[in-house]
Design brief:
By secondary structure, the protein is an alpha+beta fold. It has a domain of 277 residues: Porin, CATH 2.40.160. Helices cover 42% and strands 31% of the residues. A 16-stranded antiparallel barrel has the order 1-2-3-4-5-6-7-8-9-10-11-12-13-14-15-17.
Length: 693
């Protein structure tokens, strides 16, 4: 609809009269017309047309043709008046009946007007989704035919340029955004300019094709020619956002809000005053806030709008998108389904519904709805990106993690370090999951290798394992087994884990392992393995807050029973488009049943941690980004028999996202922990690679 309006603007400007008629100018009466001769009536008709009074011109022509249907002059002027009024299709029909009455330049103008009108129709709301592009495809075919017939006349270049501009609008509606982008680049390279009425269509295609800087140039040029081009102003806000120019986006938003009167409703105003331009501004503000990590503000604005426009499908869809960004899959799904019910032909609610179902692991249901979406809207880029996410989710999943550490205690040689981690340690793990089958199951395989040096002896632990995982709706479940290949333990590891999502904000997880693969390497050095059981609750009311509470029980072969409990939190303190500041920390406590275990096993211990983490997005381009994080915390560790000590922890990391589902991260850390009253220095490095959904 918006692009159709842009086309209408272009047509209106092409037909604008040099001198608009005055509303006080008297109309020619039927009795006066009946007393005029044919010649006098034709002179009057031409005069009225020159003044832009096309309806009165048309009335005279109709009267003359009633007198004499063979009057070619009246017939010709009637066609021209219809074209002036914008009745392009009717003018073209009448032209075809008597083409010999029109000069070639007029004939080309009539045909171009008809094609332009077809483009307008092609952008209007369709009768059905299946017929959405039929009229626009017909318009494009007619435009191509007209271009091919253009003769080498004086006005041919002008005609070709106008048709090229009209075709940009058609290509935009047909979703051929790269073609629009290439043509825009060629116009810029040739030193040309586009008329303002096609600026919004070109800007929309440049954004859809992910060329935001070019979109900024095109839309700013449009607004220089037509500062009141509303759609171009809205699109420029998005172009600034997608160019990561949030300050410019917010400045333009403030200007737009100040320039548009508020939308007044009957409940709060003396009279109802709908302002659809202000509606566009308000919805755009919601989306800009969501892109800038101001999701709480976005939610508040969206819910306020929905409370007024409860039957507006677009508002429900917008609110549903905000809910999904906040991690509320169930609430987001509900809103998108309301929007689809209100407007079943719109692609956006369907895209949101598929995204919500994928977030909720309702894969089979998402499969069916995605097939319907692609069948109805094959050219829609958001639908195509939902399909790409689906394909990533269905395919192979690969995760690799490595970590290295070095520990030294004050004034002690490396080989004498008594740290439970050893003087040097490393851990490497590769996990691979097969493509999803039956929309729920994956086969898994993993390799784990852990090493640690204790007083000159290296403990080496390697596992090869395989398993099966299941995910559907609220339930995730997995089973795996692994065989060691080291000299310290020959017991097979068998484990199972499960997770249940109680709601959008609460999930629980439990696991049980025989021959726990992450048990102390100090204990493994002594030939002692352990079984483990863990439970955890994750509470995430919003993306700003996360609280985890967990219990762990380790049952060692030497009879030692070690229990621990923890409560961890992470709280967003500051949100900016490219900067996030979080506070984090937690409380942990544990106890062991043996005092003489040949590994680090405090009879009682506890710790308190408080810290800050700064997260800066240094560069971002749609699905790709580079961000770095610095976390600093202070830990107070208490161990029975040794008292309490404070020590610092610092970690700095980089994260590169090379594409959607393709991520590399690495980081370095430093800490000064205390074990058995001895302070140590620990330096660590880690690497992470993720490939898949």
């Amino acid at each position: 609809m918006a692009l159709a309006q842009a086309c209408v603007i272009g047509l209106a400007r092409g037909n604008e009269p040099a001198t608009p008629p005055s509303p006080d100018t008297p109309r020619l009466s039927a009795s006066a017309l009946s007393t005029m001769s044919r010649g006098e009536a034709m002179v009057e008709a031409w005069r009225l047309r020159d003044e832009g009074r096309w309806l009165e011109t048309l009335a005279i022509c109709e009267a003359l043709l009633q007198r004499d249907p063979a009057d070619d002059d009246a017939y010709r002027l009637r066609v021209l008046a219809l074209a002036d009024l914008g009745a392009s299709h009717r003018a073209w029909e009448l032209y075809q009946a008597r083409p010999h009455l029109f000069e070639p330049v007029i004939a080309r103008r009539l045909q171009a007007d008809r094609v332009a009108r077809m483009i307008v129709w092609g952008g209007l709301h369709p009768v059905s989704p299946e017929s959405r592009l039929v009229e626009m495809q017909a318009a494009q075919a007619a435009l191509a035919g007209l271009t091919a017939k253009l003769a080498a006349t004086d006005d041919a270049a002008v005609s070709r340029q106008r048709m090229a501009n009209d075709e940009l609008i058609a290509l935009n509606t047909l979703g051929q955004h790269e073609a629009v982008s290439e043509r825009y680049r060629q116009v810029v390279a040739d030193g040309g300019e586009l008329p303002a009425y096609v600026g919004a269509a070109v800007g929309d295609s440049l954004l859809s094709a992910r060329h935001p800087e070019l979109a900024v140039d095109a839309l700013e040029a449009t607004l220089r020619d037509d500062p009141e081009a509303h759609e171009a102003r809205i699109l420029l806000v998005y172009a600034y956002v997608e160019s990561e120019r949030f300050d410019d986006a917010y400045a333009l938003m403030e200007s737009l809000q100040a320039s548009e009167a508020p939308w007044l409703t009957r409940a709060g105003a003396r009279q109802e005053y709908p302002n659809w331009r202000r509606y566009d501004v308000d919805v755009t503000r919601v989306l800009v806030d969501s892109f800038a990590h101001a999701l709480a503000d976005a939610q508040r604005r969206a819910e306020s709008l929905v409370s007024v426009g409860a039957m507006n499908a677009h508002l429900h869809q917008t609110l549903g998108s905000v809910y999904l960004q906040r991690g509320w899959g169930e609430r987001g799904l509900e809103r998108h389904r309301v929007a689809k019910t209100l407007d079943p032909d719109d692609a956006a609610p369907r895209v949101g519904e598929v995204q919500a179902l994928l977030d909720l692991d309702r894969t089979a249901e998402a499969r069916r709805l995605l097939a319907e979406l692609i069948a109805l809207h094959p050219e829609n880029l958001h639908a195509q990106r939902a399909q790409q996410r689906w394909e990533r989710r269905q395919g192979w999943q690969v995760n690799y993690e490595s970590a290295w550490g070095r520990n030294t205690d004050d004034g002690t040689a490396d080989t004498a370090v008594a740290s439970p981690l050893g003087s040097r340690d490393s851990r490497h793990e590769l996990r691979v999951a097969s493509p999803l089958f039956n929309d729920r199951w994956r086969l898994t395989a993993h390799v784990l290798e852990a090493n640690a040096d204790f007083e000159g002896e290296r403990v080496h632990h390697r596992l090869f394992g395989a398993g099966l995982s299941y995910v559907h709706d609220r339930l995730q479940w997995g089973l795996e087994a692994a065989v060691p290949t080291d000299d310290y333990d020959d017991g097979t590891t068998v484990g199972t884990w499960g997770q249940w999502r109680f709601s959008d904000v609460l999930a629980g997880r439990a696991s049980v392992y025989l021959n726990e693969p992450l048990a102390s390497l100090q204990a493994r050095r002594a030939g002692i393995s352990a079984d483990a059981a863990r439970v955890r609750l994750d509470y995430t009311p919003t993306e700003f807050t996360t609280v985890q509470a967990g219990l762990e029980h380790l049952r060692y072969e030497d009879g030692n029973r070690r229990d621990s409990a923890s409560v961890l939190f992470d709280q967003r303190l500051t949100s900016r488009p490219h900067f996030l500041l979080n506070g984090f920390g937690g409380v942990q406590a544990g106890r062991g049943s043996r005092e003489d275990a040949p590994y680090f096993n405090p009879t009682r211990d506890a710790s308190l941690e408080l810290g800050l983490r700064a997260d800066h997005i240094a560069w971002r381009r749609y699905d790709r980004h580079f961000r770095h994080r610095l976390a600093v915390s202070a830990v107070n560790y208490w161990q029975e028999g040794f008292g309490a000590e404070w020590y610092p922890q610092v970690r700095y990391e980089h994260e590169w996202q090379l594409a959607a589902g393709r991520q590399i991260g690495y980081g370095v850390g430093y800490a000064r922990p205390v074990y058995d009253g001895v302070r140590e220095d620990r330096v660590s490095f880690d690497l992470r690679v993720a490939w898949g959904e």
